[in-house]
Amino acid sequence: ILSSILGGDNGSSDTASCFDPMANMEITIEMDPGTFDVKKLQGLKDAGFNRISLGVQSFDDTILESIGRVHRRRDIFESIQMMEQVFGRDGVNYSLDLISGLPGLTPTKWIETLETAMKLVPQPNHLSIYDLQVEQGTVFGKWYGKQQRNNDDAEAEAAKEGILSGAQEGTRATPDVSSQTDKEQHQRLPLPPGEDCAFMYKYAAGYLRSKGYEHYEISSYARREELGSRRSQHNQIYWEIDSEWYSVGLGATNRVKGHRFYRPRAMSDYIKWVREQKESMLTAKESGTSWVPDWLPPVRVTDKNDHVVVDDDYLADVIMTRLRTCEGLDLDWVSKVFGEDRNKAILHGAELGLELGIAKHDISNGRNSLRLVDPDGFLFSNSIISSIFLELGELGE
């Protein structure tokens, strides 16, 4: 096991001592400012947690209130002071979550947000910066459904985060709007326009790079050190080829043998699913046969050249995850596993991005990879990836 994370709404709940503090693994807990005290932090440290993902989102009290967050600017500073008190200035290891594109956020306020983050003592080893996505059926979709950014800006807006939302750390519950009055809804802060959101993304990339952070994934920044950078091991697992992870809880995502599996999102469905799995396991045990969960995917079939046979979903998953990273997609691996025809289709699909200079085909120093240029390539990642998928789709036909 390389990494473990306790997150979502349960981040600050009571946790028993369940990890070996001497184990060489990253053990993260997600928490919001103002939801813990020194005693709680000491208990987490004793339980083996060695990294905290802090859901700050904004340092502006007006914005925090507008999005239904219960913590305030003062809580953020006090929380970091307590973390330093328990773990020590050199021992505290935390990541900061920030959101661009929030209601009421302007380019000037965003610059102030990043400057405030860099003045924190101790500084965060890692930052996760997400762009607010207003999607139909969500809380913010109800709040801002009539205030949509125009289509010319929507692509840039979506590209910053929208490929595989919900996979990384930093995803926390959104506020409940059921108690909002008509007057409160009318007084909500406006969303920034798409061009401002694009500026926020590009500015963050340049500013944090100047402060010694590595932009190693579309939404992730790690502080550079002499022996490398403080990348999140947990996030790294999501983007590696053939990596596997197991998650529990409502809607939790798992990846096994190159396939993703989502647990039921509704509590009633989840309970029913768990009971069915238990009954299936007991039946197999009684019959003396080995139990294979019905959600476990079959082993990928390969031909005599070790090429995967009819597994385009797996290739699509790898393309989406690897092109989120600064290293990009290993084209030699694609050729070896899927064949040269798919490799050529990928490059053809990325042709416009390559011509515009927002994608790059690296074929030097033993590398043969396709990567997106920071920040413009990341900003328009959805367009490039969609074009690649179109080429692969035509190949399949």
TrEMBL record:
InterPro entries the UniProt entry points to: Coproporphyrinogen-III_oxidase, Elp3/MiaA/NifB-like_rSAM, rSAM, rSAM_sf
Q: Which SMART domains match?
A: Elp3
Tell me a Gene Ontology molecular-function term this record carries.
4 iron, 4 sulfur cluster binding
Where do Basic and acidic residues bias regions lie? 151-160
Q: Which GO terms describe its biological process?
A: porphyrin-containing compound biosynthetic process
Under the cellular component aspect of Gene Ontology, which terms does the record hold? cytoplasm
Outline the extent of the Elp3/MiaA/NifB-like radical SAM core domain: 1-161
Q: Which domain of life is it from?
A: Eukaryota
Write out the ranges of the annotated region (Disordered). Answer: 151-192
Which protein, by its recorded name, is this?
Elp3/MiaA/NifB-like radical SAM core domain-containing protein
